[in-house]
Design a protein that fits this description.
Oligomer: single chain
Number of domains: 1
Structural class: mainly beta
Distance between the termini: 30 Å
Shape: globular
Strand content: over 45%
């Protein structure tokens, strides 16, 4: 199992970078959030904007882009689609259900069977599942800025950059 730590600020500018650390404090890479506009609050992202993107940079400087396109019906933002793009791989993320107690996503990956993501509001954690097996668990603090810990069990099936991406997806949906 690998453990990673990073901090999520509430307000982000287009130039902001969040560094990701392993448990031993060695750097893994960093996340940069980019908009089609300047500073935006999370709460206004899906109400006012039709497009924004996250970039994750690994230690070699390779960029992985996460692009969100929001449907025209802004009240229907929960059903919007995310595109995970790394090299020639495309992964479509769709929100299946939004319940009072958790949020579920299904990840359809070309080379793997679907992975389900659940969020437990009471315990402040997100769990990634393949069947009944856990692939990763994310815990975070309630106070801002949130301290986030990621435990991964099989990064061959669920890459670290995809874990970070889905974490941000569920944060947007859970506002």
């Amino acid at each position: 199992m690998n453990t990673y730590k990073f901090t999520e600020p509430f307000f982000l500018t287009s130039k902001h970078k969040t560094t990701v650390y392993k448990a031993d404090e060695s750097k893994v890479g960093y996340i940069q959030k980019m908009y089609d506009n300047d500073v935006q609050r999370y709460v206004s992202l899906f109400l006012d904007k039709l497009y924004f993107q996250y970039n994750f940079y690994n230690p070699e400087g390779e960029r992985i882009s996460f692009i969100k396109n929001i449907k025209e019906n802004k009240k229907d933002y929960i059903r919007s689609r995310w595109l995970y793009k790394k090299e020639n791989d495309n992964v479509i993320i769709t929100n299946k259900t939004k319940l009072k107690t958790n949020i579920r996503f299904q990840i359809d990956m070309e080379e793997h069977s679907p992975i389900e993501v659940t969020r437990d509001f009471a315990e402040n954690k997100v769990v990634f599942w393949k069947g009944n097996k856990q692939l990763a668990v994310i815990n975070h603090t309630k106070t801002l800025p949130r301290k986030i810990t990621v435990h991964t069990y099989n990064e061959d099936v669920l890459p670290l950059d995809l874990i970070f991406f889905i974490y941000f997806v569920y944060r947007i949906y859970s506002i």
